[in-house]
Amino acid sequence: MSYPVIRELPPEQRPRERMIKEGPGSLSDIDLLAIMLRTGTAKASAMELAAEIIGRFKDLRALAQATVEELSAIKGIGPVKAVQVKAALELGRRLAALPTEERTVIRCPEDVAALLMEDLRDLDREHFLALLLNTKNRVLSKETISIGTLNSSMVHPRELFKIAIRRSAAAIILAHNHPSGDPTPSREDIMLTKRLIEVGQIIGIDVLDHIIIGDNRFTSLKSKGLI
After folding, report:
1. Which alpha helices (DSSP H) does the chain contain, by range?
2. Which intervals carry biased composition (Basic and acidic residues) (predicted)?
3. Residue 130, φ and ψ in degrees, nearest 5
4. What span, in angstroms and rounded, lies between the C-alpha atoms of 178 and 127?
5. Which of 42, 65, 154, 161 has the fewest C-beta atoms under 10 angstroms from its C-beta?
6. What is the DSSP letter of 8?
7. In angstroms, rounded to a whole number, what is the distance separating the alpha carbons of residues 179 and 105?
8. In angstroms, rounded to a whole number, what is the distance separating the alpha carbons of residues 110 and 128?
9. Would you list the DSSP string of 200-226?
10. Could you tell me which of 26, 31, 33 has the C-alpha nearest to residue 88?
11. Angle at alpha carbon of residue 41, lines to 93 and 14, rounded to 5°
12. Which domains does the chain have, with CATH numbers?
């Protein structure tokens, strides 16, 4: 099977550009390996060399076990390219060997308040945060979406969901502080939350709740029946 020279492909079809736009999960093993190789030879493109390597070792497990000498024996793969491939595979092996991080599980509004209260209660500006959750309601990350004024925080759905999509979040819990110390939701808080819920439904990312943090107090819009 013949593979094209990467520079001759339309920009939107090149592995590097696709990885930037669509993420690494959209690329095949051959695409990823071609990015590692960077260049081909006078007789074979980087894609063709990548395909040759995959074909020679059959699967990624066998490739990871290959030595630099075995890789260098492939025509067009010298010691430099062989070392590049081995270094990338070694990084992947080390990542896989790391212990699984124990992530916080969110079961109720109190869990959110416990996680965020000390960070938010004494701030003099409204900080709008999102807890990004996986399918088991474990926290993937805590993201600051915007920092507002004394009594308002501007949040655009695009900024919120761009981050959630990039982190492959299954659900979101919104949170922000009231510098006044009173966690009573405003009309704007409720309207914004409903808008973000609607956008999430379209995208396929559930907005589970909105927690407002005051001075050692908090309000859950969901628990209050406001959303």
Report:
1. 15-22, 29-37, 46-57, 60-65, 68-72, 79-97, 109-120, 157-166, 187-203
2. 9-21
3. -135, 130
4. 9
5. 42
6. G
7. 27
8. 18
9. HHHHT-EEEEEEEE-SS-EEETTTTT-
10. 33
11. 65
12. 6-97 (1.10.150), 109-220 (3.40.140.10)
Alpha-carbon 78 to chain mean position = 34
d(CA 117, CA 122) in angstroms, rounded, equals 9
Strand-strand pairing, 139-147 and 171-177: unpaired
Alpha carbon distance, N-terminus to C-terminus of the chain: 56
Summarised one tens digit per residue, pLDDT across range 19-57 is 887 787 788 888 888 888 888 787 888 888 888 888 888
Residue 62 CA from chain centroid, whole number: 28
The tokens describing 115, both together, are 């996680």
DSSP code of residue 179: T
Residue 218 CA to residue 155 CA, distance in Å, equals 20
Query: How many other C-beta atoms lie within 10 A of the C-beta of residue 223?
Result: 14
Asked if residue 174 lies in contact with residue 213, where contact means CB atoms within 8 angstroms, the answer is no
Its pTM stands at 0.58
- Give the contacts of 142 (CB within 8 A, at least 6 positions apart): 115, 116, 129, 130, 131, 132
Distances (CA, A) of 221 to 79, 108, 115, 173, 184: 60, 12, 17, 11, 9
